[in-house]
């Protein structure tokens, strides 16, 4: 079985699967059961400054989006940071770290944006023996209205300033958790790096309203007839998170900055994708809230088997796909494929026909007996038919060989060439 031991910003854990700061990491009772189930580390639910504990709503705090089988695809929440007393959390963190020395225990923090508040909380956390801190600059609801969370995370200068304070006043590794509620995620990542962050983690939740009740006209979840935007997470946000992780991994000014990948991770495969795009480890929240702590066992066995089959180590996987993320202008315009339908698998539902006929290139013919076939002369290989077909692998793409005739254009498939040298590009550079 592959060795999944990971060292992230100097913090060792038996595997790269950590729980993200959220209800599953809210208390000793949860974290101990998570460690027993096999999680390699946790980021403790965000602690606030000393003083009266945070107050949460007492009505529903979650909303959701489901697939047709009522599988949870997206989760929305209006929960705040921990509402348990600081001293209780600190006591439990110290105990858990003592009992589980081989697991990573990072503490998430969010306190007012002044140096004294940060200095004070860092001292308390250091006393617990925790392995590091994660700065929650991402929470998009409630705390941001009080000048914390994403209110800091949306201003790169504040990120840099607070990160610098944290590095000045503590010896612990510092992970800066980024908000996706921003136009260009590379800017806050650069700021974190300038401030001395050891790593960034992303994504926190996305501003969201999951639904509106059309009887009461209240956004859901409804608190006495009113709703507020919440933070969106779960499988639905994974593509957004993957893109943001890849942007940071391949940007010249942030390349090499360790990344903890978060957002919709449910299976070992999701985790491996984040790692291939540059994440040194991953964090999980919604999947555990949906299926429980034991899903880590599938993650461990799945990733081990994948690595064993390829004789790869975890380190070989991290960043492996980054060189293949490019800009549109460098894509090979001479790469030609054609859709093809497996008649044995086809259930004759006609979805591919409707999609291609009404919104793509009228490249699927419907025979008298509802036999569907691709017209190569029209097919631009857009992939829409594959995306809408309910039968996996019923429609696939066939790659045309170099020199083969493309019946649509009447031209032979040529070697690699991209937009930068294309004759239709007014800015085209002369081909070398
Ligand atoms: C109910 C709930 C509470 C959360 N609380 C926190 C928090 O206190 N601090 C924090 O940094 N992130 C918090 N998050 C965000 C998660 O840590 C994570 O970044 C986000 O849910 C995306 O991961 P996922 O798609 O695996 O859920 C919370 C998420 C949920 C669903
Ligand atoms: S790939 Fe696009 S153009 Fe070709 S058959 Fe499918 S939907 Fe039509
Ligand atoms: S969508 Fe798939 S299953 Fe349905 S008709 Fe087209 S090829 Fe057949």
TrEMBL record:
Gene Ontology MF term list: dihydropyrimidine dehydrogenase (NAD+) activity; iron-sulfur cluster binding; metal ion binding
Domain of life: Bacteria
GO CC terms of this entry: cytoplasm
Reaction catalyzed: 5,6-dihydrothymine + NAD(+) = thymine + NADH + H(+); 5,6-dihydrouracil + NAD(+) = uracil + NADH + H(+)
The enzyme's E.C. designation: 1.3.1.1
EC class of the enzyme, as a word: oxidoreductase
Residue ranges occupied by any 4Fe-4S ferredoxin-type domain in the UniProt entry: 337-369, 370-400
Keyword annotations of the record: Iron, Iron-sulfur, Metal-binding, Oxidoreductase
SUPFAM superfamilies: 4Fe-4S ferredoxins, FMN-linked oxidoreductases
PROSITE patterns the UniProt entry points to: 4FE4S_FER_1 (PS00198), 4FE4S_FER_2 (PS51379)
Function: Involved in pyrimidine base degradation. Catalyzes physiologically the reduction of uracil to 5,6-dihydrouracil (DHU) by using NADH as a specific cosubstrate. It also catalyzes the reverse reaction and the reduction of thymine to 5,6-dihydrothymine (DHT).
Similarity comment text for this entry: Belongs to the dihydropyrimidine dehydrogenase family.
NCBIfam families linked: PRK08318.1
Record's subunit section: Heterotetramer of 2 PreA and 2 PreT subunits.
Name of the protein: dihydrouracil dehydrogenase (NAD(+))
């Amino acid at each position: 079985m592959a060795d999944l031991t990971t060292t992230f910003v100097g913090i060792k854990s038996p595997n790269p699967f950590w729980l993200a700061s959220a209800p599953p990491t809210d208390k000793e009772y949860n974290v101990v059961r998570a460690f027993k189930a096999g999680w390699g580390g946790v980021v403790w639910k965000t602690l606030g400054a000393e003083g009266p504990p945070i107050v949460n709503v007492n009505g529903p705090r979650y909303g959701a989006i489901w697939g047709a089988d009522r599988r949870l695809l997206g989760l929305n929440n209006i929960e705040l940071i921990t509402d348990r007393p600081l001293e209780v959390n600190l006591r439990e963190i110290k105990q858990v770290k003592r009992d589980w020395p081989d697991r990573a225990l990072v503490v998430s923090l969010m306190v007012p944006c002044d140096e004294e508040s940060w200095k004070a909380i860092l001292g308390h956390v250091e006393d617990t023996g925790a392995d590091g801190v994660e700065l929650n600059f991402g929470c998009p609801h409630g705390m941001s209205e009080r000048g914390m969370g994403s209110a800091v995370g949306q201003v790169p200068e504040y990120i840099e300033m607070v990160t610098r304070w944290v590095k000045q006043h503590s010896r612990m590794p510092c992970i800066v958790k980024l908000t996706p509620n921003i136009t260009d995620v590379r800017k806050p990542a650069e700021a974190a790096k300038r401030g001395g962050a050891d790593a960034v983690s992303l994504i926190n939740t996305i501003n969201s309203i999951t639904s509106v009740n059309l009887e009461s006209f209240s956004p859901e979840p409804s608190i006495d007839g009113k709703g507020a935007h919440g933070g969106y997470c779960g499988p639905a946000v994974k593509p957004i998170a993957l893109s943001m992780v890849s942007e940071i991994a391949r940007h010249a000014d942030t390349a090499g900055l360790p990344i903890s990948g978060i957002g919709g991770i449910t299976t070992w495969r999701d985790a491996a994708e984040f790692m291939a795009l540059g994440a040194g480890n991953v964090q999980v929240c919604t999947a555990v809230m949906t299926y429980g702590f034991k899903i880590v066992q599938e993650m461990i066995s799945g990733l081990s088997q994948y690595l064993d089959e390829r004789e790869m180590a975890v380190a070989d996987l991290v960043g492996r796909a980054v060189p293949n993320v490019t800009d549109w202008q460098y894509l090979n315009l001479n790469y030609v494929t054609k859709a093809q339908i497996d008649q044995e698998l086809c259930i004759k539902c006609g979805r591919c026909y409707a999609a291609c006929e009404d919104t793509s290139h009228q490249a699927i013919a419907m025979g008298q007996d509802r036999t569907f076939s691709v017209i190569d002369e029209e097919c631009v290989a857009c992939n829409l038919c594959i995306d809408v077909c309910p039968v996996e692998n019923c429609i696939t793409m066939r790659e045309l060989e170099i020199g083969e005739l493309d019946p649509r254009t009447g031209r032979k498939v040529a070697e690699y060439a991209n937009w930068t040298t294309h004759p239709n590009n007014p800015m085209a550079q002369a081909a070398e």
